[in-house]
Amino acid sequence: MPISCCAASLDAEGKALEGRLDDLSKDVSVDLRTSISDTISATVHQRAASEIAFAVIVLGTLAVITVIIERWARRLDELMYASGRFTQGDYACEISGRGSDELGRLAQAFHEMRIAMAQRDQELRTFNETLEVQVQQRTGEIEAQRDDLESQIMQRRRAEQSLRLLESAVTALPEAMLIATPDADPRRSRVAFANPAYAAILGCSPQECQRIGTAALCGAGGVARLGELVTEVLAAGRTGSTTIAVLVAVGTQMVDLQAAPIVGEGGVVTGIVYLVRPVLVARVQKTDTPGGT
Fold this sequence. Notes:
The chain is an alpha+beta fold. 62% of the residues lie in helices and 15% in strands.
């Protein structure tokens, strides 16, 4: 075969091969572009899906957090409202939402505190009511005691005034008189009062008469006759009399002795009044001393 024919044949085959290579490169280019485009599109879609999923997750999380925060805020508002009612003295406000979390435990603590404070408040109210009644009763008792004390003071003042008037009158009496305690034994009886006329009979001062007591009325007869007189007065509750020898400064003096009881409250004899009247002018020489038997 001639060389020119072979070259032409090779040239034709080269061109055909070159055309086939161009077609193949075009096909590969198209396929590669298509693949890249599909990959990019898939990547975009996947990224968009990821972003949407992330957004949904974020929004869901925010929604959950918002709900939780709102619930906590509502429970905190209830606690704040209840605490405000507590500070105003209203313990009837019930606290809801007690649970196992921190706010629930706090609400439970508030609930227990409310019950304790309500019980304490009720106890204080009961105590105040009872105290008010007790104060009123005690005030009434004090007022009654004050009125009774004022009445006693007035009675005592009247009694003291009467006693002063009586003492002035008795002191001015010409008859001898003394007041002694109601004891049947003259050795134990004490003289509470003796007027100057009685002291003049004994020949001593009224103070000395009180020291001597009723022993001077026993005279030479001892205590028996005076004791009988006092016993009769105390038993009968009326005036009795006897004649007895009284020890005086220079001897003895026969006197007419009258005794009358002083009756106090409840019929109790609180004293005996003696009236002494001399019956003899002549006096016997003294044989005993005042206070003797």
